[in-house]
């Protein structure tokens, strides 16, 4: 106790905060990148405890699409907290969650015969969706994809396939989950290109349906419309449409995990809108609560009403304060046309990375993405680690995905000047690397995924 309080009094620099953090927070909560602690933020800028400024290319893992330090959202939260912070909607009713649900339904592709189920995180909402698809179809089997990250609750872990640490020491998962290859065209296992592609990876599912996986027992396919943590992989439109058709053919529900890609990230409100497909259920989280914890499942009313209470409810879910924050955020999204901003700025930023690729083809191998959801593949893991470390030291919050993909997902309010400055910092890091000026220190600090 005494050593902790001594630490508290000393706690004033980023490094000290990070050191204290490792003493008191469980290590499974951390994918270490750089010992920086943030004190405040404004728009796409962040400030650490030394007052150093950073441009944020991570948006708190795509959960701060509206940017940091938004006064209007803060006022809405303050006002709601003073009036009635929350009263559980499990037992009585409040206006704010009803209003938020009504607005979300208007955003859903297709008709308005939809309903909403609130949770507090993306992962919990994935669990909700798993329960709902089983409840509605009476089927037990689930299909998802290699490389998928759907979250950390037991259901979400069961349908994820991205890290052995999400399985080790945990024992049984939920049964009957079947993983298939996501269409990663840049590394097509069939050696096909866009012209020669016959959707061979989709045929893997069809083969399974004819040999060992009875399609009439499959409740749902869970699909990330852009595979986020696998490296911001955008699937071909014809694949997504064919997958959706396959679902319809067999009465399988098509569930999209929009936790990372919704809220304009891809230049459309929902990433699935890029593929002209209407999913049966959409799962959201991250940016959905205007900076407060919020998870959402929404979709066709008959599916949403297929379970009775208390099959999936949480005391604090959809509470008035988080919904007040979310409603204000939605108002700002519409007023500022942030979805369109993401599309236009995304084009600009992607082109800047493509220009950089032309200059450094031996370092930058691929640039891809939609809107402000951009993945930039570098040549190898050590290069990537050194470059992101150097960028962080030079005022750019930038992390990697997989072995060597830069994750470029800034708040949608990032300015053109900030995008230009980010490119300058990345280019300088590349030059420093080529000149042998970056030490190996980064390799021992950053563990990442
Ligand atoms: C695609 C996707 N699904 C699910 C999740 C889990 O969301 P949460 O961390 O809010 O539980 C994440 C989080 O990174 C995600 O990116």
UniProtKB/TrEMBL annotation:
What family classification does the UniProt entry report for this protein? Belongs to the class-III pyridoxal-phosphate-dependent aminotransferase family.
The cofactor(s) it depends on are: pyridoxal 5'-phosphate
Instruction: List residues of the 4Fe-4S ferredoxin-type domain.
Output: 176-207
Alphabetized GO MF terms: transaminase activity
Taxonomic lineage of the native organism = Bacteria, Bacillati, Bacillota, Clostridia, Peptostreptococcales
Q: What InterPro entries does the database record attribute to this sequence?
A: 4Fe4S_Fe-S-bd, Aminotrans_3, Class-III_PLP-dep_AT, PyrdxlP-dep_Trfase, PyrdxlP-dep_Trfase_major, PyrdxlP-dep_Trfase_small
Q: What is this protein called?
A: Aminotransferase class III-fold pyridoxal phosphate-dependent enzyme
PANTHER family in the cross-refs: AMINOTRANSFERASE CLASS III, LEUCINE_METHIONINE RACEMASE
User: Which keywords does UniProt give here?
Assistant: Aminotransferase, Pyridoxal phosphate, Transferase
């Amino acid at each position: 106790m005494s050593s902790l309080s001594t630490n508290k009094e000393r706690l004033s620099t980023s490094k000290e905060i990070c050191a204290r953090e490792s003493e008191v927070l469980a290590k499974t909560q951390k994918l270490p990148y750089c010992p920086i602690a943030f004190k405040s933020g404004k728009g796409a800028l962040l400030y650490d405890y030394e007052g150093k400024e950073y441009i944020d290319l991570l948006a708190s893992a795509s959960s701060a699409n509206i940017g940091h330090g938004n006064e209007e959202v803060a006022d809405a939260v303050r006002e709601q907290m003073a009036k009635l912070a929350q009263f559980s909607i499990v037992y009585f009713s409040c206006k704010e969650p009803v209003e938020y649900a009504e607005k979300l339904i208007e955003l859903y592709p297709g008709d308005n015969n939809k309903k909403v189920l609130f949770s507090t995180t993306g992962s919990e909402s994935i669990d909700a969706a798993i329960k709902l698809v089983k409840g509605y179809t009476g089927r037990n089997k689930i299909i998802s994809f290699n490389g998928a990250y759907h979250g950390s609750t037991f259901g979400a872990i069961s349908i994820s396939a991205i890290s052995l640490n999400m399985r080790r020491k945990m024992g049984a998962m939920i049964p009957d989950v079947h993983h298939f290859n996501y269409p990663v065209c840049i590394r097509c296992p069939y050696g096909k290109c866009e012209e020669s592609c016959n959707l061979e990876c989709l045929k893997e599912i069809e083969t399974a349906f004819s040999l060992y996986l009875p399609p009439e027992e499959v409740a749902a396919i869970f699909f990330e419309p852009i595979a986020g943590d696998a490296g911001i992989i955008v699937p071909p439109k014809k694949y997504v449409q064919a997958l959706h058709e396959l679902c319809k053919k067999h009465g399988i529900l098509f569930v999209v995990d929009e936790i990372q890609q919704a809220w304009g990230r891809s230049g459309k409100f929902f990433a699935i809108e890029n593929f002209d497909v209407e999913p049966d259920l959409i799962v959201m989280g991250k940016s959905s609560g205007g900076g407060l914890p919020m998870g959402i499942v929404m979709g066709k009313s008959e599916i949403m009403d297929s379970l009775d209470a208390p099959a999936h409810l949480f005391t604090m879910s959809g509470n008035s304060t988080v919904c007040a924050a979310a409603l204000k955020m939605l108002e700002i999204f519409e007023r500022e046309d942030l979805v369109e901003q993401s599309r236009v700025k995304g084009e600009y930023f992607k082109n800047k990375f493509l220009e950089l690729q032309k200059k450094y083809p031996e370092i930058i191998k691929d640039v891809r993405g939609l809107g402000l959801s951009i993945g930039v593949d570098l040549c190898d893991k050590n290069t990537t680690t050194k470059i992101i470390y150097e960028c962080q030291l030079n005022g750019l919050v930038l992390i990697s995905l997989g072995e060597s993909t830069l994750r470029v997902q800034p708040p949608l309010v990032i300015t053109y000047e900030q995008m230009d400055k980010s490119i300058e910092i990345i280019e300088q890091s590349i030059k420093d690397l080529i000149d042998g000026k970056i030490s190996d220190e980064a390799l021992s600090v950053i563990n990442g995924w």
